[in-house]
C-alpha cells in the first residue's frame, strides 16, 4: 500500500506542476522504407547469409537467415539496435546517398552485408514449383544446382493463394530447395530427396 500511495502522490504532484507524460516519438515510416530490402553475405562465411529488412506496424524489422525476426529500434541516424540481441545494427550509403550495406554482429564479430535488388517473380518457364501456405512470408526463393544455389535470383510470386515459381530447365537431374525469408525448406510436395557432398539433404527433380 505504501508504494501505491507514493506513486499516487508523485503522479498528483506532476499533474499539479503541469508536467506532461513523455510520449514515444512516432516512427517516420517513409524514412524507414529506405532501409527495406535484402542484404547478402558470402554463403558459408557464417550461418547467416541473408538479412531481410521490412517495415511492419510502423517499425523496422530484420529477419536473418536461420534466425528469429527482430525489431530494430533507432539509436541515432542510420544506427539501430537489435532488440533481440541488444547489438548495434548500422546502415551504410554510397556516394549518392543510397543505402547499400548493413553491418551487424554475429558471435561478437561485425559483419557487413551488401544490399541486393530482388528481380520480379519468375513466372514463365517449362517447370513449375509450388509452395502452399506461408501466407505471412515476405520473400520466397527457389534455389538449386541449376543456378549455383543463388538465394536471390528465382523469386516466387503469388498465384491463387499459393507461392509459384517457373523456370526453364533442360532435361536432367537437379537438386533444389526453397528459401522462405532466409530459412531453407524442403519442398513439402516432393518426397524425392538426396544428400549432397556437404551432407545437406535436398529435393531431387528429374526433367525429362
Structure explained in plain terms:
- The chain has two helices and 17 strands.
- It has two domains: 29-116, Beta Barrel (Lipocalin), CATH 2.40.128; 127-207, Immunoglobulins (Immunoglobulin-like), CATH 2.60.40.
- The strands form three sheets. The chain has an eight-stranded antiparallel beta barrel with strand order 1-2-3-4-5-6-7-8.
- 9% of the residues lie in helices and 45% in strands.
- With 208 residues, it is mainly beta.
- The protein starts with a helix and ends with a strand.
- It has helices spanning 2-16, 29-32, and strands at 37-40, 50-56, 59-64, 70-76, 79-82, 87-93, 99-106, 109-116, 127-131, 140-144, 154-155, 157-159, 162-167, 172-180, 183-185, 193-195, 201-207.
- The longest helix has 15 residues, at 2-16.
Topology (SSEs and partners):
Elements: H1 2-16, H2 29-32, E1 37-40, E2 50-56, E3 59-64, E4 70-76, E5 79-82, E6 87-93, E7 99-106, E8 109-116, E9 127-131, E10 140-144, E11 154-155, E12 157-159, E13 162-167, E14 172-180, E15 183-185, E16 193-195, E17 201-207
Antiparallel strand pairs: 1-2, 1-8, 2-3, 3-4, 4-5, 5-6, 6-7, 7-8, 9-13, 10-11, 10-14, 12-13, 14-15, 14-17, 16-17
Features:
single chain; 208 residues; Lipocalin; eight-stranded antiparallel beta barrel; disordered N terminus
The averaged pLDDT comes out at 87
Classify the helix fraction into a percent range.
under 10%
**SSE pattern, N- to C-terminal:** HHEEEEEEEEEEEEEEEEE
Shape: globular
User: How would a textbook summarize the main sheet?
Assistant: 8 strands, antiparallel, barrel
> What structural class should be given to the helix and strand makeup?
mainly beta
Number of discrete domains: 2
Q: Can you list the strand order of the major beta sheet?
A: 1-2-3-4-5-6-7-8
State the end-to-end CA separation: 79 Å
Q: Which topology of the largest domain does CATH recognise?
A: Lipocalin
Q: Name the beta content range.
A: over 45%
What gyration radius follows from the Cα positions, in whole Å?
23 Å
Would you identify the regions where 5 or more consecutive residues have pLDDT less than 50? 1-17
Count helical runs. 2
CATH class of the largest domain: Mainly Beta
Find the count of extended strands (DSSP E, 2+ residues).
Answer: 17
What is the name of the CATH architecture of the largest domain?
Beta Barrel
Amino acid at each position: 500500500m505504501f508504494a501505491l500511495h507514493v506513486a499516487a502522490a508523485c503522479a498528483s504532484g506532476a499533474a499539479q506542476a503541469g508536467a506532461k507524460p513523455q510520449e514515444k516519438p512516432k516512427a517516420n515510416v517513409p524514412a524507414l522504407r529506405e532501409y527495406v530490402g535484402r542484404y547478402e553475405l558470402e554463403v558459408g562465411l557464417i550461418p547467416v547469409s541473408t538479412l531481410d529488412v521490412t517495415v511492419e506496424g510502423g517499425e523496422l524489422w530484420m529477419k536473418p537467415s536461420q534466425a528469429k525476426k527482430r525489431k530494430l529500434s533507432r539509436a541515432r541516424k542510420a544506427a539501430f539496435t537489435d532488440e533481440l540481441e541488444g547489438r548495434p545494427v548500422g546502415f551504410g550509403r554510397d556516394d549518392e546517398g543510397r543505402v547499400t550495406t548493413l553491418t551487424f554482429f554475429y558471435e561478437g564479430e561485425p559483419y557487413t552485408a551488401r544490399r541486393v535488388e530482388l528481380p520480379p517473380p519468375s513466372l514463365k518457364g517449362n517447370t513449375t514449383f509450388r509452395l502452399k501456405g506461408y501466407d505471412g512470408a515476405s520473400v520466397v526463393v527457389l534455389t538449386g544446382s541449376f543456378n549455383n544455389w543463388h538465394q536471390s535470383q528465382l523469386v516466387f510470386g503469388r498465384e491463387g493463394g499459393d507461392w509459384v515459381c517457373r523456370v526453364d530447365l533442360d532435361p536432367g537431374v537437379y537438386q533444389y530447395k526453397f528459401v522462405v525469408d532466409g530459412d531453407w525448406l524442403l519442398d513439402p510436395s516432393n518426397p524425392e530427396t538426396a544428400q549432397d557432398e556437404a551432407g545437406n539433404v535436398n529435393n531431387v527433380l528429374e526433367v525429362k
